[in-house]
Design a protein that fits this description.
Largest sheet: 7 strands, parallel
Helix content: 40-55%
Order of helices and strands: EHEHEHEHHEHEEHEEEHEEHEEHH
Structural class: alpha/beta
Number of helices: 11
Distance between the termini: 33 Å
Bound molecules: nicotinamide-adenine-dinucleotide, uridine-5'-diphosphate-4-deoxy-4-fluoro-alpha-D-galactose
Amino acid sequence: MPVLVTGGAGYIGSHTCVELLNAGYDIVVVDNFSNSKPEVLNRIKEIAGRDFKFYAADLLDRNGLERIFSENCIEAVIHFAGLKAVGESVSIPLKYYYNNITGTIELCEAMARHGVKKIVFSSSATVYGNPKSVPIKEDFPLGPTNPYGRTKYMIEEILKDLYVSDNEWGVVLLRYFNPIGAHESGRIGEDPNGIPNNLMPYITQVAVGKMDKLNVFGNDYNTHDGTGVRDYIHVIDLAKGHLKALEKVMRGSGVDIYNLGTGTGYSVLDVVKTFEKVTGQVIPYVITDRRPGDIDMCYADPSKAFDELGWKAEKDLEDMCRDSWNWQKNNPNGYE
Ligand code: NAD
Ligand code: UFG
């Protein structure tokens, strides 16, 4: 029985589809291409050497979802579909609440109508807000500081309530830290629209000549070199975490929450230096003002995922930089 992957044409979803296909799962993918391109589907098939069913549909379209569940005997759902730009969520919050929360409610209603009660959800380290200390454990207080983060927090609560109402639900909430990197083939990777918001795609676009320099947002943070520290995780390690989470939901019911990070924090300048070392590219940068809302340090204690799922990140920052660059240099214009 196939696994439904929502948002499977996106950055993390596409890498997870490859890992699922490689592991022998049948998958059905749904995406509305609001932040992705159809070409990614060909690339997934090419890498995995296997075909899968795809629906160009929106989670907000009840009839479209109904069709997917009627035509396929779905066993479990991995739910990536959502909007994710923090800044945009501050300017257009209703779009984020409607798409992310209503989309999830429509999905869960369709699942319930068809007796599908196993879901793995893409949450985010952003639910912790400004953590009281690092490394961050799953039982730390939550306090997202922007509408995007609040959609993740609210969806976590909705899925917990669903389990309380019906103990047959199996829910895994995965709180990702900072995914970067790409498949080692260089055929799939992150393809942001317009000017990248996130550090690694910005660096690779400087390296490929699309941007002239990196703006480093502040060097007066309380960190070893003054620049912000994050827990960067290779997207393939993250994808593999979803297979472990899927095995967990299939084993039984309940709600389980896991941090997916490496447990190591790197500063902006650590990332720039490592990128330069492994790629031989020079990344010109200037120090600018802090970006509003940014925090000093954010990295995971990933030990719960290791103890309970047997998962841990295997790839290091050099792998992440090498693979991000390999994708960008082979696809300077992304999937276009
Ligand atoms: P992405 O934008 O590349 O992928 C999301 C996909 O969902 C896109 O292909 C988009 O077209 C699709 N989508 C959005 N709304 C939809 C809808 N209503 N119906 C159908 N399809 C829809 O993002 P990503 O980086 O792959 O992130 C995947 C998930 O992980 C998201 O939920 C995101 O919030 C979460 N997450 C991402 C990060 C990160 O830094 N990339 C960190 C933490 C959490
Ligand atoms: N940074 C720069 N220059 C840039 C972009 C980023 O200096 O052009 C710095 C930031 O100030 C921060 C670090 O690089 O110190 C990482 O920034 P990102 O934008 O790559 O990532 P964030 O940690 O800010 O946020 C990301 C996702 C969020 C998610 C969060 C935790 O964008 O959606 O990780 O998972 F919630």
